[in-house]
Write a structure and sequence with these properties.
The complex is a heterodimer. By secondary structure, chain A is largely without helices or strands. Chain A contains 1 helix and 1 strand. In chain A, 15% of the residues lie in helices and 6% in strands. Chain A is flat and about 45 Å long. Chain A starts with a strand and ends in a 29-residue tail after the last helix. Chain B is of the alpha/beta class. The model of chain B has no long low-confidence stretch (mean pLDDT 94). The longest helix of chain B has 26 residues. In chain B, α10 runs parallel beside α11 and α11 packs parallel to α16. In chain B, strands 4, 5, 6, 7, 8, 9, 10, 11, 12, 13, 14 and 15 form a 12-stranded mixed beta sheet that branches. Chain B has a 3-stranded antiparallel beta sheet with strand order 1-2-3. The chains are: A little secondary structure, B alpha/beta. β1 of chain A pairs antiparallel with β3 of chain B, so a sheet runs across the interface. Bound molecules: iron/sulfur cluster (SF4) (3 copies).
C-alpha cells in the first residue's frame, strides 16, 4: 500500500477465542504500585 | 472504532478493536474524518469534493480503496465483539496478594496515600501468625491456579523484616505440599536495606520495587525522614549497591512526580544516569487542594514532557544503550489476550490486600476503608458479593471506558482512584485518563517507529 503502512499483525480477535486462562500476572495500574498498563504484560498461557 | 493522532512527525492510526496500528500519510489522515463503514466500491464523489483542493483526485480514490481493503481484512474499523467475555471471570480464583506487613514507616513523604505509613489506623506490624493465615488463604482461594504472587508492602516492609523472612519460609514449605509457586516481590524505600537483607531478597524475591523520585532536590522535597532531612543520599547509595547484586533478577526504581517537578523527564534521565535501566516515574494522585497535586491546568506541560521523554529514550536506544520506562512498555505484536484486557488489575477479584490486623481489602489502596472491608483472616469471613461487584468492574461496565479508544491498553484504569476521586469504582477519574492516553500515544508511536524501522 502506498498511503497506509500496517505496522503489526496483532490479532486481538483470535486471542479472545483462546484466552482468558488467567495464568498471567495481575497488574496494578496505580501510581503506588507497578503502574503497568495491561498491554505490556506477558501472556503465560501454555500453548 | 479508530483513533488517529500526530506525534513526532508521524501520523498514527490505531484500530481499537483489532489492535492494528498503521502509519498513514496526511491525505489518509484527513480522509478518515469523512469515512466509516459501510463502504462503497468507489470513493463517493462528495468525499472527493471535500479534499480535492488539497490533494490529487486519483490519490484520494487510492486511499479510499486502501481503507476498504483493510476494512475487509478486519484490521480497520473492526468490530467490538468482546463484551460477551466480560462476565466470564466472575468466579476467578484469587492469585495475587498484597501483604501489608508494616503499617509503619521510617519516612514521612508528603504525598503518601498511606498517611505517613499508618493508613490512618495507627502504627502496626503484622504478626507471623497473621502472615501464616494469609498464606493459607492464598493457597486455598487460588483453587487451580499454580502461579501465585505475593507482594510485601507497607508502610515500609523492611521495618518488619523478621516476619517477612518467617512468612517466606513458611510459604516455601506450604506451596510445595500443593504443587504451587509463589512469586514474591517487595516494595521498599531503601532506608533499611542492609547487605543481609539484600541477600535474602535476592534469593527469594523475583522482583523488587525501589522507591526514589529522581534528582536529589526533587526526592528530598517530598521524601523526607522523620526529622525532616531528605532521604536521597542514603537510598541512592543503597540502591546502587543493591541493583548490580540482583544479577538477572528483576527490579525497578519507581518515583512519583508532582506539580513541583513537571519536568520529570529530567528525573527519569537522572535515574538512568545513576545506572538504573528499569524505571517507572508516575503522576502523584492527590486531592486537588494539595499544593503538590497535579491539576488539569498542568496537562499541557505534562503532555509535552512525555513527548520530550519519548524523544530522549529513543535517543538512548538508538545509541545502542538500554533503558526501559514502564509507561512506554507496550507489545504491539503479542501481549495479553483480549479477555485479560477487559479488566486490568483484578482488584477485589483476583487480587486482595491484607492489613496487619488480618483484614481483607480489594487492594492496597482500599486498605483502611471500612466500607470496602471484605472480611478477616481470623474470623474466616470473606464477602463474596463484594468480590462479584469487583469482578463486574470492566471496560464495558464503566461508561467512559466503553467509549474510550485506549480501553484495550488501559483496561479501565484504577478502581481505587475512581472511588476516591469520583465516588464510584465505575466512574473514570478524568485526570488519570488524560495522562494515561497521552502516555499510550507516546508508547504506540515509539513501538510503531521501531517496527517500521525493523521492516525497512
Ligand atoms: S495468560 Fe495469556 S491467555 Fe491467559 S489470561 Fe493471561 S493473557 Fe490471556
Ligand atoms: S483511559 Fe480512562 S476511560 Fe479510557 S479505558 Fe482507561 S480508565 Fe477507561
Ligand atoms: S484498584 Fe487501582 S490501586 Fe488497586 S490494584 Fe487496581 S489499579 Fe492498583
Amino acid at each position: 500500500m502506498k498511503h497506509i503502512k500496517t505496522i503489526n499483525k496483532a490479532d486481538l480477535k483470535a486471542s479472545a477465542e483462546k484466552g482468558g486462562c488467567g495464568k498471567c500476572q495481575a497488574s496494578c495500574q496505580s501510581a503506588c504500585k507497578t503502574s503497568c498498563t495491561v498491554a505490556n504484560q506477558k501472556c503465560e498461557r501454555e500453548a | 472504532m479508530i483513533h488517529k493522532f500526530k506525534l513526532s512527525g508521524y501520523n498514527i492510526l490505531l484500530d481499537v478493536n483489532s489492535n492494528g496500528v498503521h502509519i498513514i500519510d496526511d491525505l489518509t489522515y484527513d480522509l478518515l474524518d469523512y469515512v466509516e463503514p459501510p463502504f462503497e466500491a468507489e470513493c463517493p464523489a462528495e468525499i472527493v469534493d471535500k479534499l480535492k483542493d488539497s490533494y490529487p483526485e486519483e490519490d484520494i480514490r487510492d486511499v479510499y480503496s486502501e481503507i476498504v481493503e483493510l476494512y475487509n481484512d478486519k484490521i480497520l474499523f473492526s468490530e467490538d465483539d468482546y463484551e460477551k467475555f466480560a462476565e466470564t471471570a466472575i468466579a476467578s480464583p484469587i492469585k495475587s496478594m498484597c501483604l501489608h506487613v508494616s503499617h509503619d514507616c521510617n519516612l514521612r513523604c508528603d504525598y503518601c496515600f498511606a498517611a505517613t505509613g499508618d493508613f490512618g489506623t495507627g502504627r502496626k506490624l503484622m504478626t507471623f501468625e497473621t502472615g501464616k493465615k494469609a498464606i493459607d488463604f492464598l493457597l486455598r482461594e487460588s483453587a487451580g491456579r499454580k502461579n501465585l504472587e505475593l507482594d510485601f508492602f507497607g508502610g515500609e516492609p523492611l521495618m518488619n523484616f523478621d516476619v517477612v523472612k518467617q512468612i517466606v519460609e513458611y510459604a516455601r514449605e506450604e506451596e510445595k505440599k500443593v504443587g504451587k509457586t509463589i512469586r514474591f516481590t517487595i516494595t521498599t524505600n531503601g532506608m533499611l536495606l542492609t547487605e543481609d537483607k539484600m541477600d535474602f531478597i535476592n534469593n527469594e524475591m523475583s522482583n523488587v520495587v525501589l522507591s526514589i523520585d529522581g534528582r536529589k532536590e526533587v526526592n528530598d522535597r517530598m521524601r523526607k525522614r522523620v526529622d525532616g532531612r531528605g532521604s536521597y543520599d542514603r537510598i541512592i547509595e543503597n540502591f546502587k549497591k543493591f541493583v548490580p547484586m540482583r544479577g538477572d533478577k528483576d527490579y525497578y526504581v519507581r518515583g512519583t512526580y508532582t506539580k513541583y517537578n513537571l519536568d520529570f523527564s529530567e528525573d527519569v534521565i537522572h535515574l538512568y544516569e545513576q545506572g538504573f535501566e528499569q524505571i517507572s516515574v508516575e503522576p502523584v494522585m492527590a486531592p486537588p487542594e494539595m499544593p503538590y497535586a497535579i491539576t488539569e491546568e498542568d496537562l499541557p506541560k505534562i503532555f509535552e514532557e512525555y513527548e520530550r521523554l519519548s524523544k530522549r529514550i529513543r535517543e538512548i536506544l538508538d545509541s545502542g544503550k538500554f533503558i526501559n520506562f514502564f509507561h512506554f512498555m507496550l507489545d504491539l505484536e503479542a501481549g495479553p489476550c483480549a479477555i485479560k484486557r477487559l479488566k486490568g488489575c483484578g482488584c477485589g477479584n483476583e487480587y486482595v490486600a491484607i492489613s496487619p490486623e488480618g483484614d481483607i481489602y480489594p487492594c492496597h489502596q482500599f486498605v483502611g476503608m471500612e466500607e470496602y472491608k471484605m472480611g478477616n483472616l481470623d474470623d474466616g469471613t470473606f464477602n463474596k458479593d463484594m468480590k462479584k461487584e469487583f469482578a463486574g468492574a470492566h471496560v464495558y461496565s464503566k461508561p467512559e471506558c466503553r467509549k474510550c479508544w485506549a480501553k484495550f491498553f488501559c483496561s479501565g484504569g484504577c478502581n481505587a482512584n475512581n472511588y476516591i476521586y469520583c465516588g464510584d469504582i465505575h466512574k473514570s477519574h478524568k485526570l488519570s485518563c488524560e495522562i494515561q492516553r497521552k502516555r499510550l500515544e507516546c508508547a504506540i508511536m515509539m513501538q510503531a517507529v521501531k517496527l517500521l524501522d525493523k521492516a525497512e
